[in-house]
Amino acid sequence: MGRGKLRIYLGAAPGVGKTYAMLSEAHRRVERGTDCVVAFVEHHNRARTEVMLHGLEQVPRKELEYRGSVFTEMDVDAVLERAPAVALVDELAHTNVPGSRNDKRWQDVEELLSAGIDVVSTVNIQHLESLGDVVESITGVRQRETVPDEVVRRADQIELVDMSPQALRRRMAHGNIYKSDKVDAALSNYFRPGNLTALRELALLWVADRVDEYLTEYRNEHRVSKIWGSRERIVVGLTGGPEGRTLIRRAARLAEKGAGGEVMAVYIARSDGLTSASPKELAVQRTLAEDLGGTFHHVVGDDIPASLLDFARGVNATQIVLGSSRRKAWQYVFGPGVGATVARDSGPDLDVHIVTHDEVAKGRGLPVARGARLGRSRSIWGWLVGVGGPVILALLLNTVDLGLANDMLLFLTVTVAAALLGGLYPALASAAFGSLLLNYYYTPPLHRLTIADPRNIVAIAIFVGVAVSVASVVDLAARRTHQAAHLRAESEILSFLAGSVLRGETSLEALLERVRETFGMESVALLERTSDVDPWTCAGSVGPGPSKRPEDADVDMPVGDHMALALSGRVLPASDRRVLAAFAAQAAVVLDRQRLQHEADQAKELAEGNRIRTALLAAVSHDLRTPLAGIKASVSSLRSDDVAWSEEDQAELLEGIENGADRLDHLVGNLLDMSRLQTGTVTPLIREIDLDEVVPMALGGVPEDSVELEIPESLPMVAVDAGLLERAVANLVENAVKYSPVDELVLVSASAIADRVEVRVVDRGPGVPDEAKDRIFAPFQRYGDAPRGAGVGLGLAVARGFAESMGGTLNAEDTPGGGLTMVLTVRAVERRPDLATATATAERQVS
After folding, report:
1. Where is the Histidine kinase domain (predicted)?
2. How distant, in Å, are the alpha carbons of 207, 697, 729, 766, 821 from that of 818?
3. How far is the C-alpha of 266 from the C-alpha of 410, rounded, in Å?
4. Which phi and psi angles does 283 have, rounded to 5°?
5. Beta-strand relationship, 351-355 and 319-323
6. Given 295, 440, 525, 602, which residue has the most CB atoms within 10 angstroms?
7. Is the pLDDT at 467 greater than 70, yes or no?
8. β-strands 820-829, 809-814: how paired?
9. How far is the C-alpha of 735 from the C-alpha of 725, rounded, in Å?
């Protein structure tokens, strides 16, 4: 059985009519005789949607109990057993109730599709996983229920259910979406016109991109090379010259005239890398293209016109924008130029615009790289061998006669050596000088620059040709070796940058120091400003005397419009600026990350402070006032002359006063301890003690018959602060007694494990789920339905804070059979033997 097909109704917001459209499609299919069932549809008490369910077969839902409530979910097994042709499954991004077959509803849908059942579903654009941050920035609401984009993209059919914001708000106001008591809040918050317009744009653009993908797949499958003008795409051919900015702006104006126009700026570089444009100018043009809503592409190709046309046809472009040639008139003898060639070969479906600019006919003016330099010392040695080598060889050969053939081979050897050391030009000089010496000394007539035998002319010509060819090959190989080493260094640097991006480890100062070391600079500074007219400010720098402005630096690399990396020390070659551009981009990312982290830390501190202040006010307003009110009432009763209290009544009132005072003392103590922990003023006095000296003292605040104590005498001593450990254990025991059943004892036991000692406080209470085990240690937290009078929720937070201040840990574990176990771990100290034991041991060793 084949896989089922998935059809999705996509909407921009709740209430646009996705479920209604899905049910309408179901009715149409049932009328055509298709076996269609409702697997799960939520009508949200909307009358018109609920009516559409009539006449459709509904698979009974599965009931699940969770935290005392009963929920209904889609019964996947029942749908699979029913095996319809089509199943309707609403709300694809829904999260299932714990205990369901799958965590997400889209996973349930995947099972139905795998079973060969076609599925019709619905989803809102804000539930797509990749758009979560964008939707939160628009609406201020973080979507908890999401579906992976790939699940929706794999759908066989996606239909957009669209509605204007005004119409959707009218539907909301008429009560067709939410109940009347929620309408005003919805209209003033999530359903604001701006929010709905932005969400609608997201939905339209997402569907448009998906349609574009369908079109690209179809063209590739059917090998359609002809351009289809379904959408205006304008390709801008850049040379790296200053006219590129004019071309990009002209293309942007052309794109604005058509609906959905798209600009793609492309620079084509030769594969050998021997010619390149100005990296700084290309960076500016990249930024300009992106600011105007376009994209920038870097393509490698030796045949520039063919590569440009291939790129344009590959992206289904409709227009190409090129600048008028900068070549002078005499340069056209070498060919018609890129513009004329592209216009000639573009065909009838691709329009070519030739735009004039200020650089027309002024010459190319682009920097041409001459390959990697071999170094000053190698060049000097190359010239010495190329010029001095033939002279020395001639002097040596004058003393011995080896024959013309051998003489030529020796001179050729000197030429090859000059090429290996100094490159092409010393080798050419060696070949020219060697041929003159061969002619003068070894070719008849001797000591004259003439040749009598024509065969010797051929030999000299072959010698010069071989010498030049060998020198060219050796020079090219030497330069390619140098280039390979340079590129390897570049790749290592880029690999380092990529790793630092993934790890997020590099600080701005460390990155700038790496730039300074890599390029051998004196100082490096990252400069920024808020606008084009504001002064530059230094965001970070290393080295002495960093530049205050980009124009004052020896090298400046722009990063966007208002940021630049300024280097002082020397001028960099163009080949090194590519790596510098990567460093500059990474520096901007690191700076943004540091600032965002700082803002996040500040926001976290403010939020934590606000939360603690709010909880503290709540504690003071209720938990502290309650015992105060009880004490005041008891004291007022005792002082009253209107009632004659018996001794039993007076004792009961005095006991109430004492209990209230103890409770106040406990609450105020926890509040003070928490404030000390929050401000970092807890300084433990660590000393070596036995646990059986401290733990029993911590049980004074609970009834005597509520705790079972198991502290072995063989335990090693522990390095703790006795007071802090007593308070921590007391809080743990009081918490355990509070939640334990009346007939169950709390067990406090201790054991040694390696170099640690564990104190376990075990209760048989209701326990805590795994996801809440860390949360119960947060300040002002009460788990479950604990009453307000049960405390302010600081006991466990204080206990963990004291444990960590002593170098220990405090964690929560499940008690086998039910309940919660608090595990307090502290550092053990090796027990020192007393004097008598040490003496006895020594005597045994001597005997």
Report:
1. 619-830
2. 52, 28, 21, 7, 10
3. 52
4. -65, -40
5. parallel
6. 525
7. no
8. antiparallel
9. 15
Instruction: Find tokens 């990252």 and name the residue.
Output: 526
Evaluate whether 588 touches 573 at the Cβ level (below 8 Å).
no
Contacts by 286-291 with C-beta closer than 8 Å and gap 24+? 287/558, 287/560, 287/561, 288/245, 288/248, 288/249, 289/236, 289/248, 289/263, 289/265, 291/561
Q: Ranked by mean pLDDT, which of 351-355, 617-621, 632-636 comes out on top?
A: 351-355
491 is written with which tokens? 């790749």
What number of other Cβ atoms are within 10 A of residue 80's Cβ?
A: 16
| Encoded tokens for 408 | 């030529």
Answer with the residue of higher pLDDT: 672 or 245.
Answer: 245
The Cα–Cα gap between 627 and 663 comes to 7
The pLDDT tens digits of the residues spanning 89-114 come to 999 989 988 888 888 999 999 999 99
Q: What is the pLDDT of residues 590-627, one digit of tens each?
A: 888 788 888 887 887 677 656 555 555 555 554 566 67
**Helix, strand, or coil (residue 371):** coil
The answer to whether the CB of 276 falls within 8 A of the CB of 401 is no
For residue 435, count CB atoms less than 10 angstroms from its CB and return exposed for 0-12, middle for 13-18, buried for 19 or more.
Answer: buried
What are the Cα distances from residue 316, in Å, to 311, 651, 713? 9, 94, 83
Q: What is the DSSP code (8-state) at residue 440?
A: I
C-alpha–C-alpha distance, residues 37 and 58, integer Å: 6
Are the CB atoms for 817 and 695 separated by under 8 Å?
A: no
- β-partners of residue 526 are 540, 565
Residues 511/503, Cβ–Cβ less than 8 Å: no
Strand partners, 121: 8, 89
Place of tokens 């040379």: 239
Residues 764 and 815: beta-carbon distance below 8 Å: yes
Q: From 347, 357, 238, select the one nearest 295 (Cα to Cα).
A: 238
Q: Rounded to whole angstroms, how far apart are CA atoms 77 and 86?
A: 15
Q: Which residue has the higher pLDDT, 230 or 204?
A: 204
Please identify which residue in the block is written with the tokens 């809440």: 772
Residues in the chain: 847
CB 820 within 8 A of CB 765: yes
- Rounded CA separation 89/83 (Å): 14
Q: Is the peptide bond before 242 cis (omega within 30 degrees of 0)?
A: no
pLDDT at 9: 93
pTM: 0.36
Place of tokens 């003489």: 407
> Torsions phi, psi of 821, nearest 5?
-120, 125
- Which residues have C-beta within 8 Å of that of residue 366, sequence separation ≥ 6? 239, 240, 241, 275, 277, 278
Q: Point out which residues pair with 252 in neighbouring strands.
A: none
